[in-house]
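Checklist before submission:
- one chain only
- standard amino acids only
- sequence pasted in full

Submission:
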Amino acid sequence: MALIKVDVVSTERSIFSGEARFVEVPGTAGELGVLPGHTPLLTGIRPGTVRIEAADGSQTFLYIAGGFVEIQPDRVTILADTAMRADSLDQARAERAREQAKALLEQQSDDIDYAKAQAELAEAVAQLQAIKRMRKQNQAG
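Returned file contents:
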């Protein structure tokens, strides 16, 4: 079975390094599914979940908050602004952040940075989705 080398790094540290048979990445234009032999590609990524499927079928879920992905036929390198394993995310904190961002967006005031509030909302929603996907996989496995 052909495998692809995967490296996920944030500005602070390496989050994941290993081999996989499939990688799913939230690209800016939509979800990217990467198999060994993929056509070379460099694109931005949006906040979301990276799913890495190992040769044995086990899956790793990572939350990323944007950055870039470089895809080569034998390698996927994700350079993320922020990245962490989905199992280390705090669901209550993410829900509070989502509610705070929603409340800010509902206000009609000149003092609000709407772009920042929208970005915070997108990140909170992406964190909650990562948690949900990881839990769903754990229940199925």
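Reviewer check: The chain has two domains: 4-88, 91-138.
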